[in-house]
Amino acid sequence: MSQDPANFRPRTRAVHGGTVRSPFGETSEAMFLTSGYVYDSAEAAEARFKGDEGGFIYSRFANPTVRMFEERMIALEGADDARAASTGMAAVTAALLCQLSAGDHIIAAKAMFGSCLYIVEELLPRFGVASTLVDGTDLAQWQNAVRPNTKVLFLETPSNPTLEVIDLKAVADIAHQAGARLVVDNVFATPVLQRPMELGADVVVYSATKHIDGQGRCLGGIVLGDQSFIDDHLANYMRQTGPSLSPFNAWVMLKSLETLDLRVREHCRNAQKLAEFFDNHPKISRAIYPGLKSHPQHELAARQMEMGGSIVAIELAGGKASAFATANGLEVVKISNNLGDAKSLITHPETTTHQRLSDEARAGLGITGGLLRLSVGLEDADDLIEDFSQALSAA
Ligand SMILES: *Cc1c(COP(=O)(O)O)cnc(C)c1O
């Protein structure tokens, strides 16, 4: 039996939400590694395809383990419904393509994950969807970019990699006045720290690859929204185009949600300590973290996020050479472009995640040669600080 999670607090929902037990009464959620389902009769198959009878048909459409993951995320996010996807980018692409048509217009914040920029700037225009990129922290730019055919406003906050924080409530109001939907990529904040739907977002997307798995094992994603968005746009798009999440990966994500709250809060505590250490370090010209008073949108971050997040960006005064030497000198922290892992990971955005961008575009985003993005893990914060102390003094 499915429990009604609405009565519980978020941590309880993360442990129990969406659980459906088989007749064996297993404690832990079952993994249904099956592509198809058998019917008692030809009539039953007909009724199921017609929609007269509930039940699973094919795992591209839905699968019991994947559905448990979706239901648990729905309970955490406060959405009506959701569809899981094979990766975060499959989720972002679905969330946009399922509702946009040639002749429509999308406005997006320019500070965002590199692949999301590709969808907005290159892919959508090829199919006749015009796009405008704005400085997401400047509300006047959002307002001025609105056209009669604007259908979607899209942003991530905090953004990758420079951790700009965008006012969700204000942008949601602009979207709704324009008759458009606000789509929020909530990866950096996670459902633990920020609930965009409570602030007016219509659609929320995640790369579950990041904090939801949290241990660097599986790729996955999910799109959440209200019932009419799912029924009128997303459900059929997912069913027919098939970026489905594998039941194995869904099971890993489902079990990881049980510890999401504990892990994310510990990531944030570690990140805050490191950010404070970086803030006064002579080799660092700028430490960027929403939980630091020096962050340009610190007040807003404190209002719309519970804690500062797990990502810290630092700019080395000595530029690229100094950034590379620091990354190379680290022993506990590993060089990797993934994030939201139990292991602390560092990357140099200019030469990795944002390499594809023009010099101008990078400069506009504040991605300089000296910039490093650190995903703070679950190690002891003192070991991380000691690791940076030695790497920075040698750099
Ligand atoms: C990682 C990430 C994505 C893409 O997710 P994948 O699972 O790698 O496809 C999208 N948005 C943000 C903010 C991300 O960090």
Q: How is this structure best summarized?
A:
The protein is an alpha/beta fold and 395 residues long. The protein is built from 14 helices and twelve strands. It folds into two domains: 5-257, Aspartate Aminotransferase, domain 2; 261-394, Aspartate Aminotransferase, domain 1.
Structure description:
It is a single chain. This protein has 395 residues and is an alpha/beta fold. It folds into 2 domains: 5-257, Type I PLP-dependent aspartate aminotransferase-like (Major domain) (Aspartate Aminotransferase, domain 2, 3-Layer(aba) Sandwich); 261-394, Aspartate Aminotransferase, domain 1 (Alpha-Beta Complex). Helices cover 41% and strands 15% of the residues. It has 14 helices and 12 strands. It has helices at residues 10-16, 42-50, 64-77, 88-97, 114-126, 139-145, 168-177, 190-193, 227-241, 247-279, 298-304, 319-329, 359-365, 381-394; strands at 81-85, 105-109, 130-134, 150-156, 181-185, 203-207, 221-225, 284-288, 311-316, 334-335, 345-347, 371-375. The strands form 2 sheets. A 7-stranded mixed beta sheet has the order 1-7-6-5-4-2-3, sandwiched between helices. Helix 7 (168-177) links the parallel strand 4 (150-156) and strand 5 (181-185). The longest helix has 33 residues, at 247-279. It starts with 9 loop residues before the first helix and ends with a helix. The mean pLDDT is 96. The site of pyridoxal-5'-phosphate has 16 residues, from helix 4.
